[in-house]
């Protein structure tokens, strides 16, 4: 056989071997204790192996759908960083060992989550999420980062089973409402970030957050709250600047804050209304009626609790009925009926 033919055959064999062989990704670098892997593609993934590292960072890769196929390749990885991979669909399945996931700076709009995972820290900021209902099953979460997404409405119930959740970030979304249909208890929550959304009202009457220390409500369009912070007995810091507070309500709130030694660290830099303790308010700002409602609500609830030693649940029903009765005028009649029925039931 002449040499040229030999070379051609050798070359062809090499090419075939190359195509059939698996890509064995290796750590090209280490970053903060993470093994760094590069150039992963959806095409190369099926026939590839990953190093069995506890902490893995995938970079310079494009993986539009990140799911079971990826997680099967990294069965021992507990900490995974998959920032900037143009991920659109994230499917958290077959990753029972995962405790920390950084998947920020992607294009994630679709999210699926298997039950029974043990994730403690989940970073999903800077994505395109409009619906985070799927996160409901992540009951072991301690830190959840959802800021800089496209959330418009949110049911706080989604987090109801996250009894270890300490930190929840929701700032810079487009939230106009945060609803709940039943009392939601988050016994470990310490920090809640809601700043720079589009909230015009926020009803926290059914939130039970006994350890909440820090809440940021700045940069919304709030005129008043349906609370004087009774549901946050541990609160130390409350940011209020850049809102549309009703002055009468704000004065009252500031009184409460002073009595309980709750601080605000930031102030309004400019104000078209009146500055009160460096927070801007508007004397003709949204509806003072709810303020009266609040005072009476607080009194009624306190009174009921004292007098009847009523079960908490029943008080909550009354609270809810009472709030809705006054706020949603169209539902007033119905709510008054409920209220009366309740009173009859508890023998008032
Ligand atoms: C990944 O691809 C880039 C650009 O093509 C290249 O410079 C780099 O060496 C590749 N890294 C690895 C580990 O193959
Ligand atoms: C790999 O990604 C990092 C961070 O995303 C970037 O700084 C770097 O330039 C990229 N390298 C290549 C070879 O593309
Ligand atoms: C959000 O997703 C859940 C399922 O994960 C679905 O049941 C629900 O209807 C979705 N909500 C909206 C507003 O699309």
TrEMBL record:
Keyword set, alphabetical order: Coiled coil, Leucine-rich repeat, Repeat, Signal
Signal peptide, first to last residue: 1-24
SMART domains per the UniProt record, alphabetical: LRR_TYP
InterPro entries (alphabetical): Leu-rich_rpt (IPR001611), Leu-rich_rpt_typical-subtyp (IPR003591), LRR_dom_sf (IPR032675)
Residue ranges that the Swiss-Prot or TrEMBL entry lists as coiled coil: 301-335
Record carries keyword Lipid metabolism: no
Signal recorded as keyword: yes
Entries under SUPFAM superfamilies matching the protein: L domain-like (SSF52058)
Any Pfam family the entry gives: LRR_8
The protein's name: Leucine-rich immune protein (Short)
Organism classification: Eukaryota, Metazoa, Ecdysozoa, Arthropoda, Hexapoda
